[in-house]
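> forwarded from #structure-qc
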């Protein structure tokens, strides 16, 4: 996944947090998500949450590790 916007980064970080194999990795991903969220609008944050859940549910993101 190529990151073009802060929303893209937030979406990916949230998906990583959801699927993280350990609590430590989930915390790392959430910290990253907070950084991206700080640069996003409220609307972008809502959309990123929706998109992250959709990507995880449909398994449409691959090959990215934190």
């Amino acid at each position: 996944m190529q990151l073009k916007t802060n929303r893209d980064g937030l979406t990916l970080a949230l998906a990583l947090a959801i699927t993280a194999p350990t609590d430590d990795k989930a915390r790392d991903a959430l910290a990253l998500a907070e950084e991206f969220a700080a640069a996003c609008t409220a609307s972008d944050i809502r959309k990123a949450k929706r998109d992250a859940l959709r990507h995880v549910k449909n398994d449409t993101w691959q090959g990215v590790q934190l």
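QC bot note: The chain has a mean pLDDT of 90. Helices lie at 6-19, 23-38, 42-58.
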